[in-house]
Amino acid sequence: MAGMADHLGRPLVAVTGIGIVTSLGAGKAENWTALTSGRSGIRTISRFPIEHLNTRISGMVDFLPSSSRGATALTREMAETAALEAIGQSGHSESEFGGPLFLAAPPVELDWSSRIALQRAKAEGEGMGRLLAAARALNALDMFDTSQFGFIADRLADRFGTRGLPITLSTACASGATAIQLGVEAIRRGECDRALAIGADGSATAEALIRFSLLSALSTQNDAPEKASKPFSRDRDGFVLAEGAAALVLESLESATARGATVLAVLRGCGEHADDFHRTRTKPDGSPAIAAVRAALADAGLGEDGIDYVNAHGTSTPENDRMEHLALSTVFGERMKSIPISSNKSMIGHTLSAAGAVEAAFSVLTMRESVLPPTINHDNPDPAILLDVVPNAKRSADVRAVLSNSFGFGGQNTCLVLAREPV
């Protein structure tokens, strides 16, 4: 159908539904209102003891019933909540979705309730033998289920009637964007006319907090939690661990148009580039991030002048913000100084596996509402980072295309180009 294919002759991919859960609330309306008003969801941690911890703040989703039941249960509930909203908006069936599911989720660990139950179980032997004997004695199917990496996706597939084997992936902080990319590619290949892409992460646990602290990655500005995340500022000192989820219903533009669906945006391009420089640090010259941005633009068929706004990865760590600035200024040159850029993480923190999906959903709303969310706490700009950061208050703007960046630990880099219209 004329106008339904991209510059390479592939089916154009539309977004027909989005759903969001963050520390700001459940639902895109509540999140968008809070985000554009500059409200922070970062608070002092109350879920577990924080005495003697260097970092005592987080952007936790404490208002859902599963928040006290462990990371797996919360990740599942957030994913389901976001998916329900997205599918409902798209107009597809909430029980017979009919397309594949791609879920970005955190690595699986036994929740503490399960560990304690195993410790208390009566079993003979030592080491792994005793552990297996204790597990057999408990005969706890729920414990087994929640220790499986694909468990959440399996349950979501049952709930929504998705097609085929659900895919669960974990590519660090790029996971949410990678899930979207897989959905886009499946539609482009003609394997399906719709796909459900979800990023969800409820793993703001004590262990995660301590591990990231040992890497010196977290902010320790505990006294004013809402001011701790300050991307691109001179006094930034680390990211704020957070939880959240977002779901996007992706659909061929031809299918969406044929059934009269509202097209919220078009997923024009995806770019990825891996980096083997270090397990956690980014490559100092920014070359993998540069390659990912350029790949996304090429995939979208856009030049450097085709982007009106950047939804930054913007973690608020000294190294990552510096690298992102280097990458963007290399690709866009002097124009980068005048392309507005925001970091949603200044208000919601870093939602890890969910971040790429959450920020893609916010990018869709940015285009539809013609409003740029602010980067709050931007009172002391880093003089070495010359960017048009939208500081502290929202800004009205006509946005036709957005670049959404996700640069993850271990060199996982994925960038998305979203457009308001097909061309």
Can you walk me through this structure?
With 423 residues, this protein is of the alpha/beta class. The chain has two domains: 13-108 and 148-419, 3-Layer(aba) Sandwich (Peroxisomal Thiolase, Chain A, domain 1), CATH 3.40.47; 113-145, no CATH class. Helix content is 34%, strand content 18%. It contains 13 helices and 16 strands. The strands form three sheets. Strands 1, 2, 5, 6, 7, 8, 9, 10, 11, 13, 15 and 16 form a twelve-stranded mixed β-sheet that branches. Strands 3-4 form a two-stranded antiparallel sheet. α3 (112-120) crosses α4 (127-138). It starts with 12 loop residues before the first strand and ends with a strand. The mean pLDDT is 94.
Amount of helix: 25-40%
What series of H and E elements makes up the topology? EEHEEHEHHHHEHEHEHEHEHEHHEEEEE
> Which stretches are low in confidence, meaning pLDDT under 50 for 5 or more residues running?
none
Would you tell me the structural class of the helices and strands? alpha/beta
What is the residue-averaged pLDDT? Answer: 94
The CATH architecture of the largest domain can be named as: 3-Layer(aba) Sandwich
Q: Tell me the overall shape.
A: globular
The radius of gyration computed from the alpha-carbon positions, rounded to a whole number of angstroms, is 21 Å
Strands, total number: 16
Distance between the termini: 15 Å
**Total helical elements:** 13
Question: What fold name stands as the CATH topology of the largest domain?
Answer: Peroxisomal Thiolase, Chain A, domain 1
Largest sheet: 12 strands, mixed
Going by CATH, the homologous superfamily of the largest domain would be Thiolase/Chalcone synthase
- Domains (count): 2
CATH class of the largest domain: Alpha Beta
Strand proportion: 15-25%
